[in-house]
Amino acid sequence: MFKKIYRTAVYVMCLVAFSVNAQEPKQLFEQAGEYVKKHKYNEAIDLFTRVIESRPDYAGAYYSRGVVYSLLDKLDEAIADYTAAIKLDRGYSQAYANRGSAYYQKGNFSEAIKDFDSALMLNPGDADVYFNRGNVYLSQENYDRALADFTKAIETDDQLGQAYANRAQVYFAKKEYNDAWRDVTVAELMGVQLSPAFLKALKKESPKDR
After folding, report:
1. From CA 96, how far away is CA 119, in angstroms rounded?
2. Is residue 9 in a domain?
3. Number of Cβ within a 10 Å radius of residue 182
4. How many CA atoms lie within 13 A of 50 on its CB side?
5. Residue among 6, 18, 9 at smallest CA distance from 57
6. Would you say residue 1 lies in a domain?
7. Does residue 185 sit in helix, strand or coil?
8. Assigned domain for 112 exists
9. For each of the chain's 210 residues, which pLDDT tens digit applies?
10. Region class of 74: left (phi > 0), else alpha (psi between -120 and 50), else beta
């Protein structure tokens, strides 16, 4: 299979709804968020750890530290923190989504799909999760399910240019070349750079003017 075009996972810091009685953990949490914005990730991890030590019952602190670990490609640490956040808050859809992304990066597709399923049960309007689950199915060459997920992602957010690009690859694999060209055209109009190898293969199988 040709190189796939993946959309970078969206990591959202939970800097808003931090309700604590003690002022110090709140200040530490907010300062950690500022460090993240400045890409000072090690400093952010240190502060999130201090928040966790002060408030071990706060799921958002584990989640946010997990986000930083994800940004550093420390996937095992990220998974551990997302898991801790989920244990504290079973309705934490973004924690499931991010843990699913981390599992996907580690090649653990079955666990990734489970987490994406859970995230979508909690938040069925999350286009990013449909897109990411579609990537798992595409990696598994489960083209029908990949097609369904990329289509759902597009229906939910029609500005996801890379969802069109990846769906084009699914159509190519299914030998539905006209549909592949249609999605290629949309993706290119949206500024997505597709794999030259993929475009060459598509032109070879379906050498038509667009």
Report:
1. 5
2. no
3. 16
4. 15
5. 18
6. no
7. helix
8. yes
9. 333 333 334 344 444 344 445 567 888 888 998 999 899 999 999 999 999 999 999 999 999 999 999 999 999 999 999 999 999 999 999 999 999 999 999 999 999 999 999 999 999 999 999 999 999 999 999 999 999 999 999 999 999 999 999 999 999 999 999 999 999 999 999 999 999 999 999 999 987 654
10. beta
**Tokens representing residue 76 in the block:** 């095992």
**Domain enclosing residue 126, as ranges:** 23-205
Inter-residue contact 150 to 137 (CB < 8 Å): no
86: CATH: 1.25.40.10
Residue 105 lies in a domain: yes
CB 90 within 8 A of CB 81: no
